[in-house]
């Protein structure tokens, strides 16, 4: 089963009220600098929508957002363009993009260090209901590749994968690790 | 772009009606042909528009980052999707929702499409449509198939076609309606969709229905075709009919629709609409897009001649069984009334519930039932909320919701006894926001967020107004709470600013060599009586001061109004001159070095720009001679309004015309300082120097605004009616705006401009 359109979200460490306004000039700067692998197009402000996409950085190949969906703030990467390689390569690329984004946001002085990201879990999904309907068959089919991806990063038996099985939502799993992930180590392991 | 695009056709085989399926197949083929460059780009542009596939800001591959215009490097630069429109650039998909009616399954599909092809948000428009933004061209056939499988088409959502047929969202349940217009709206929508007589219009054609004349919900006065339900007694029996109006429209210069028939029998509705379409297609302007709406045809011919032509055409139409069949089928399908009511209507509960109950719940004409409004901020709803709304619709209504022209959703046929539970369900979906249809419920078009025509950030301003007003809405005087605010990003009025108590539309001004986002304040519009009258611009205010305009006008209204006086009457009694004086200080822009926040727009930190040129370093407070002339011209437009207000329409006309001459002369002086003060010479020089060279041409409207000057000059000696004076004032305002735009595009330094 070939999977495209990987959708990956890394939550904020602490939930609570976070002012997203400083994100707007930061994302505009990223568009100006074209500082991601993807072609960046525009910034969309959806702060007025409760539990919505928050602030979106629209790209051609993928969108990035500081997203409130599920009532939990986090960085979401939504791959739109086709990507070569195997499924786990695409999982790796999505996680690398999210971690890089998190690191850049944490290091941006305009946010005054207010954003700290989860280091024990992330949500991994597929934004295509026809390729990957949210059911047991999809989960069973993708499990070996998710295991291959996670095992390579965290070590065998050092992570858990939980299928989030609401059939109306897109296919996704929650990947958790007992120990905090070291972001620098992960980024190094994920580098192409 | 989606990998699964090629699979949806097979997956949905048999689930889409055959005609719709064939249409989508054809569209997919047209996309392929365009990719091979076997179809002309202009033809393809109109083709996709007629399927609701619209362009979006930056789709020419250029984006100004606040300092300079930069190229967006898309992988595919050829072919284009239309003139100057890159293939890879994301666009907007408009989805027609006739009379705003949707069921739960359709809401769920909308949620899936928003997530999979767009940015996770579905946007309700001021014409009861849905829009999805940032959609890729290749995804549109799959998106259309998924909509088609639940009975929705995007056909003719854009382009020169019959647009969404709108209707009062309370049709069938409103205590004040003559009768339910829903079946008639449904039948007309079905009949005109893809009709051969509607394929050769010069511009779009928008129909609307209302169940009564006194409320705003149908907005029939501002539509190309408006039908208001009326009844008469004949031989002791109540019979139905329609007050039929034609030739209304907002846009740059708004027109009130004219009464075509005061009692059109329902069985004549479809053939009459068809005959109107034929006359419009045959006689409507085709070349000059600025005068191609039916309102110009009706105006030029006069309503009596137009009506005579339509009736003649109607007599000649070959009989069509669908005229009756579609009405019969729609009437037979109108069956929501079988529910049983129970429970009492009670606003007791938490303070939050009471506040919501007060603003968002209204009684139906059927005892025991209510309508509850789901207020959507800026018309936006997330995919998760759409799914929750679908659940709520199934649980509390007969599986139906309707969108509204105020960018909300209404739940009808809610049992009174279920209200508390409904509130809880809405609250858990974060959809229980109070303030429906009041001052907090600000309406805005997409503006500079995504629209190619946007001049100022209508959504940015609207969001800021909502934030500020929501904080204090509970303590506001009721008279303030009842006001309507509507914001458009430009003069085209998609935000319907003309019919708001407080309307705003985006313009730009140059201050010290920098462009500054502004909004024209439009006052005096009437929301009730189906958009009974239109407001006029008072003064341009920098965007960042507009919230203060709202506060100041609101405070003055509360302190000065006489008992029960409407805002519209208050503005009229106070006089535009006084109102303008009240706002005068807010029109000033501090220098860039004093406060540079004025030089960017709401929600967008980039230094404001309307083009790639004209950027200069701060030149302090130096004002060019041209800017003085343009400011003087603006002042004259305002004086013309004051004359019109006082009933001196001839003077109003002459002053508005004088304003146009003044602005034209200002531009001419850049090249020809000694231009004599002779109107023929000014018009002639303007034509040679700015029209023939196309310098005055608006980037999107072309020669439209310049032509206003020439038309006024030609009709100088004609009699001037209240209507023609009023129209010229509007045109003069737009002409002056065009001169500002022209001057901005010329990018002249103060020295050059005064040379």
Give an overview in words.
The complex is a heterodimer of chains A (192) and B (755). By secondary structure, chain A is α+β, with helices and mostly antiparallel strands. Chain A has one domain. Chain A has 4 helices and 8 strands; from the N terminus they run βαββββαβαββα. Chain A has helices at 23-33, 87-107, 136-154, 183-190, and strands at 6-11, 40-46, 54-59, 62-67, 74-79, 121-126, 160-163, 172-176. Chain A is globular, with a radius of gyration of 16 Å. The mean pLDDT of chain A is 94. Chain B is α+β, with helices and mostly antiparallel strands and 755 residues long. Chain B has 4 domains: 5-148, no CATH class; 181-333, Sulfite Reductase Hemoprotein, domain 1, CATH 3.30.413.10; 469-613, 2-Layer Sandwich (Sulfite Reductase Hemoprotein, domain 1); 623-755, Up-down Bundle (Four Helix Bundle (Hemerythrin (Met), subunit A)), CATH 1.20.120. Chain B has 25 helices and 26 strands. In chain B, a hairpin with a 2-residue loop joins β22 (502-511) and β23 (514-523). In chain B, α20 (625-645) runs antiparallel to α24. Chain B is globular. The interface between A and B is large, with 39 and 48 residues.
């Amino acid at each position: 089963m070939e999977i495209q359109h990987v959708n990956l979200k890394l939550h904020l460490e602490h939930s609570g009220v976070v002012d997203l306004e400083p994100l707007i000039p930061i994302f505009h700067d990223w568009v100006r600098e074209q500082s991601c692998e993807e072609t960046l197009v525009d910034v969309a402000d959806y702060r007025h929508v409760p539990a919505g996409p928050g602030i979106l950085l629209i790209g051609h190949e993928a969108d990035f957002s500081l997203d409130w969906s599920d009532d939990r703030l986090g960085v979401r990467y939504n791959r739109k363009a086709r990507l070569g390689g195997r499924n786990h390569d695409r999982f790796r690329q999505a996680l690398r993009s999210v971690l890089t984004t998190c690191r850049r946001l944490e290091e941006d002085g305009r946010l005054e260090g207010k954003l700290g990201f989860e280091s024990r879990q992330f949500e991994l999904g597929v934004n295509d209901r026809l390729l990957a309907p949210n059911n047991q068959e999809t989960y069973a089919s993708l499990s070996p590749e998710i295991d291959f991806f996670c095992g390579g990063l965290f070590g065998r038996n050092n992570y858990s994968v939980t299928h989030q099985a609401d059939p109306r939502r897109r296919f996704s799993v929650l990947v958790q690790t007992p120990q905090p992930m070291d972001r620098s180590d992960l980024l190094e392991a994920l580098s192409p | 772009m989606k990998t699964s695009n090629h699979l949806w056709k097979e997956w949905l085989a048999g689930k889409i009606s055959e005609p719709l399926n064939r249409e989508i197949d054809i569209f997919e083929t047209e996309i392929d042909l365009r990719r091979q460059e076997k179809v002309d780009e202009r033809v393809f542009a109109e083709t996709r528009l007629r399927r609701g596939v619209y362009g979006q800001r930056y789709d020419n591959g250029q984006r100004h980052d606040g300092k300079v215009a930069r190229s967006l490097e898309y992988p595919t630069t050829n072919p284009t999707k239309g003139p100057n429109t890159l293939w890879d650039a994301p666009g907007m998909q408009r989805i027609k929702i006739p009379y705003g009616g949707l069921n739960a399954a359709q809401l769920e599909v909308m949620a899936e499409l928003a997530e999979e092809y767009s940015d996770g948000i579905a946007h309700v428009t001021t014409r009861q449509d849905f829009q999805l933004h940032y959609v890729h061209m290749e995804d549109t056939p799959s998106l259309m198939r998924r909509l088609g499988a639940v009975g929705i088409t995007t056909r003719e959502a854009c382009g020169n076609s019959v647009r969404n047929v709108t209707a009062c969202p309370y049709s069938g349940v409103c205590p004040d309606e003559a009768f339910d217009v829903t079946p008639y709206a449904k039948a007309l929508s079905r009949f005109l969709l893809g009709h051969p007589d509607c394929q050769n219009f010069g511009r779009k054609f928008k129909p609307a229905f209302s169940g009564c004349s006194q409320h705003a919900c149908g907005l029939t006065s501002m539509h190309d075709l408006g039908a208001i339900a009326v009844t008469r007694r004949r031989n002791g029996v109540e019979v139905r009919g329609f007050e039929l109006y034609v030739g209304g429209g907002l846009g740059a210069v708004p027109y009130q629709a004219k009464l075509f028939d005061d009692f059109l029998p329902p069985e004549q509705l479809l053939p009459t609409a068809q005959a109107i379409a034929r006359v419009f297609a045959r006689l409507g302007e085709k070349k000059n897009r600025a005068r191609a709406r039916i309102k110009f045809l009706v105006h030029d011919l006069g309503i009596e001649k137009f009506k005579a032509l339509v009736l003649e055409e109607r007599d000649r139409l070959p009989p069509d069984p669908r005229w009756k069949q579609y009405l019969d089928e729609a009437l037979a399908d109108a069956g929501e009334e079988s529910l049983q009511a129970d429970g009492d209507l009670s606003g007791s509960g938490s303070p939050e519930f009471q506040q919501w109950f007060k603003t968002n719940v209204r009684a139906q004409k059927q005892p025991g039932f209510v309508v509850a409004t789901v207020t959507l901020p800026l018309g936006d709803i997330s995919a998760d909320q759409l799914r929750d709304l679908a659940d709520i619709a199934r649980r509390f209504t007969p599986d139906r919701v309707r969108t509204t022209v105020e960018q909300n959703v209404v739940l009808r046929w809610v049992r009174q006894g279920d209200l508390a539970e409904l509130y809880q369900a809405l609250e858990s979906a974060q959809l229980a926001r109070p303030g429906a249809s009041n001052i907090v419920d600000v309406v805005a078009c997409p503006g500079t967020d995504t629209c190619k025509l946007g001049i100022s950030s209508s959504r940015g301003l609207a969001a800021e107004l909502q934030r500020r007003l929501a904080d204090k809405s509970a303590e506001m005087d009721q008279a303030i709470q009842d006001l309507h605010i509507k914001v458009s990003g430009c003069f085209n009025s998609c935000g319907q600013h003309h019919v708001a108590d407080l309307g705003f539309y985006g313009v730009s001004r140059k201050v010290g060599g920098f462009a500054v986002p502004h909004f024209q304040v439009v006052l005096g519009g009437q929301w009730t009586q189906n958009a009974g009258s239109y407001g006029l611009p008072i003064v341009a205010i920098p965007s960042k001061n507009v919230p203060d305009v709202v506060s100041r006008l609101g405070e003055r209204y509360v302190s000065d109004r006489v008992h029960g006086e409407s805002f519209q009457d208050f503005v009229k009694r106070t006089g535009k001159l006084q109102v303008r004086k009240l706002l005068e200080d807010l029109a000033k822009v501090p220098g860039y070095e004093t406060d540079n926040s004025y030089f960017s727009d709401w929600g967008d930190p980039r230094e404001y720009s309307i083009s790639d040129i004209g950027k200069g370093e701060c030149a302090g407070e130096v004002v060019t001679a041209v800017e003085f002339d343009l400011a003087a011209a603006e002042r004259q437009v305002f004086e013309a309004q004051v004359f019109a207000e006082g009933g001196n329409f001839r003077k109003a006309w002459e002053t508005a015309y004088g304003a146009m001459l003044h602005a034209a002369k200002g531009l001419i002086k850049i090249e020809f300082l000694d231009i004599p003060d002779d109107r023929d010479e000014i018009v002639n020089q303007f034509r040679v120097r700015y029209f023939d060279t196309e310098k005055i041409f608006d980037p999107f409207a072309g020669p439209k605004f310049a032509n206003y000057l020439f038309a006024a000059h030609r009709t100088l000696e004609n009699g001037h009616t209240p209507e023609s004076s009023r129209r010229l004032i509007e045109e003069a305002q737009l002409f002056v705006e065009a001169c500002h735009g022209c001057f901005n595009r010329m990018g002249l330094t103060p020295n050059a401009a005064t040379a």
